[in-house]
Amino acid sequence: MSHVDQSGTFTLGGRAVKRLGYGAMQLAGPGVFGPPRDRDAALAVLREAVARGVNHIDTSDYYGPHVTNELIREALHPYPDDLVIVTKIGARRGGDKSWLPAFSAQELAQAVHDNLRNLNLDVLDVVNFRSMWGHLEPAEGSIEAPLTALADLQRQGLVRHIGVSHVTPAQVAQARRICEIVCVQNHYNLAHRHDDGMIEALGRDGIAYVPYFPLGGFSPLQSSTLSDVARRLGATPMQVALAWLLRRAPNILLIPGTSSLAHLRENLAATELELPDDALDVLDGISRPRSATAPGAEAAAQAH
């Protein structure tokens, strides 16, 4: 049994995926813009992830832009039958590396076609609509028009399943009135637990929750607490954070990203880490008495 197999599975878009997947964002250049520093290393990371059992890859054509999808196609096409590639739309990149909203029906259709072309696919498995109402945190604002446009692309046969990202509970409810939602992708980790209630509610309805930025939003004190637990268990802080997320709820699917083969192997090995009860108590205490986001901590994932 591989490390990834030990993570278990959960249904995403009608298909069983391993709960430990891979996020491709870090394969692009600095600021998620331009080509990778080492193209061969990026291709090697993708190939090894799949060879080790990963069958859920998260990407977007605005990473780069176009860079990560082109790397995925070069490394993995023709794709294994069990591989689920999840992409997202709703943003675009400015020439100054900025992240800009791209909500119109025309922009969303173009984004779907860009993803199809650069991944060399006839239909996209899962497409997340990424709300851009909020900058560092989800903010209220109607997503009815873009979700309706995305549902129309689904009816055209270009998209199999739809998810949402960077959204509030009210926006999730609005989206579910428009179309079936198979996953929600938000910022969530040991120190940032605003979505606790949402995770439970989604789980009851068989909807996957996909947290990103597993070490983002940690204060120095929280980081030292996590590091102390990791040191005691002979693990890395990232491994402990991932192991805690796997324990948190069965509908959580992880997509840790890296451009390093060594870090990829460390992340996959997190499935073997046993968290004793006393360690869980300490880790759960990181979010108390408040779940705070350190200033600027989420900037790197502002349009994840």
What does this structure look like?
The chain is globular. It has one domain: TIM Barrel, CATH 3.20.20.100. The chain has helices at residues 39-51, 67-76, 105-119, 144-155, 169-178, 196-204, 220-233, 237-248, 261-268, 277-284; strands spanning 9-12, 15-18, 22-23, 56-58, 84-89, 91-93, 99-101, 124-130, 159-165, 181-187, 208-212. The chain contains 10 helices and 11 strands. 37% of the residues lie in helices and 17% in strands. The chain has 304 residues and is of the alpha/beta class.
Task: Explain briefly what this protein structure is.
By secondary structure, the protein is an alpha/beta fold. Helices cover 37% and strands 17% of the residues.
Number of strands: 11
Instruction: Report the average pLDDT across residues.
Output: 94
Stretches where pLDDT falls below 50 for ≥5 residues? 290-302
**Main structural class:** alpha/beta
> Can you list the strand order of the major beta sheet?
3-4-5-8-9-10-11
Termini separation (Å)? 31 Å
Into which percentage range does the β-strand content fall?
15-25%
| Alpha carbon gyration radius | 18 Å
SSE arrangement:
Blueprint: E1 9-12, E2 15-18, E3 22-23, H1 39-51, E4 56-58, H2 67-76, E5 84-89, E6 91-93, E7 99-101, H3 105-119, E8 124-130, H4 144-155, E9 159-165, H5 169-178, E10 181-187, H6 196-204, E11 208-212, H7 220-233, H8 237-248, H9 261-268, H10 277-284
Parallel strand pairs: 3-4, 4-5, 5-8, 8-9, 9-10, 10-11
Antiparallel strand pairs: 1-2, 6-7
Helix pairs in contact: 1-2, 3-4, 7-8
